[in-house]
Give the backbone structure.
Amino acid sequence: MAKHRGRGIASINYPIGMNLGGDPSQALVHSNPSGKFTVSLSSIDLGQGMKSVTRQICAETLGVPVEDVYVDTADSDTGPHCMGSFASRGTHRVGNAVMAAAKEARGVMMEAAAEELEVNAADLDTDGRGNIHVKGAPHRSISTKDVAIAAQFKQGKTISGRGIFLVPLSEVDPETGEMSPATCYAHACLVAEVEVDDETGEVAMVRMDSAYELGRALNPRLVEQQLVGGAWMGISHALFETPEPYYPDPAHGPRDFVEYLMPGPGDVCPHDIAVLERPAADGPFGAKGPGEMCANPVLPAVANAIFNAVGVRMDELPITPEKVLRAIKAQGGARPQARR
Amino acid sequence: MTKTPLQFRHNGRDVALFVDGGVNLLVALRELIGDMTPKFGCGQGGCGACGVLIDGELHLSCLTLAETVNGRTVETLDGLKDGPNLHPLQRAFMEQFAAQCGYCTPGMLMAAKALLDRNPSPTRAEVIEAISGNICRCTGYEPIINAVLAAATGGRARA
């Protein structure tokens, strides 16, 4: 009776968004009389930071400080249409819509500023600190606040913009069934190391090493946060969570958090992450976004690591101690495989 | 039904209210006092989102009868900051990106405060033990553990 270490690897190509009905997202951007901007969205930030990245995208496109942008999400009754926060589409789809809306709003803002400064709008630029100035002549400038006030009270203009991102609907080839379900793909590779106890069937995570290629990381700390948290969910799906442990028999199913098992703070392991940035041609500032794939590679990597450790092929999730133990018994004991 | 008069100290302020028999402290705080910082997660002591300090000790307010805090001191997340100044734990949670959806955060912060109040320089294992009754769905715990260690004086040296 012993504990066996094993290492497993998994690679993943992950589609960003989907192509049902063109997968559209809309965004509206408008200036308030204070010269600050509001982005209206119907997609929701589930905590992974879509509000933060759409705020950055809007500020960068408008050429104003990020502090001057407020993002209003998640009222599908009154907001513009959006398919929602799923399919790892938030940063890419919603970000593109915000970028388009901010571009249109920037055009109006520059026209309004041009009228105040009595120059051609093409000769103007933003300084990213809340001012608009004549190119090459920074002293000839006007604040975005004064532009917003002039547009509102003098010029009778709304500084606003509309944006939509819509993927051309992909037709299915009748001969081959081929279609293009997504416009860009993110990629990842993850190595998991586990320790399997052949007496109890318990699997403990030892460490994970991963590399994620997800376009440009618009907010690197949020990307890392999402990858760390997502990997925990992957561990949870691989080894713990199930509402029906004896499917299809609902008996002995968990009734509460005491019985519905998830890894606790003591069950996590060191995770070294490398983020590779290869900007996507159609992404907002090259971003694709991590999304769901931060959890996905953990499951096959853990299953492969268990095979490497004790020689049993687990093909049902979650890989509970009971299943591991039964499989080890069925093959007449642990058979550690060669370490790679 | 007869109501019971109840007085206790809530985040440095004396409060007096009448509660129905059997009302738990979480309901009293949220619905009668209006302190929404303790969260209702499971209502049966399984998730830790409702954690508060009673006389400095961590308790699950969903499992605590409101009447039992009569004459005692109750601290919630709402009382953690000092005016406009965030508590070192709150700052560390921000800097370490220790929250995503944020629902577990009040309970995590109170569990961490209870730990640091009695052990200002905990080891990593002691931090894990202290938050082991709190469920987090988003962060993978690692950033939370790191935040508590960062907020602790000398915590890193011992970890």
About this structure: The beta strands of chain B are 3-10, 13-20, 51-54, 57-60, 73-75. The helical segments of chain B are 25-33, 88-95, 105-118, 124-130, 142-151, 155-158.
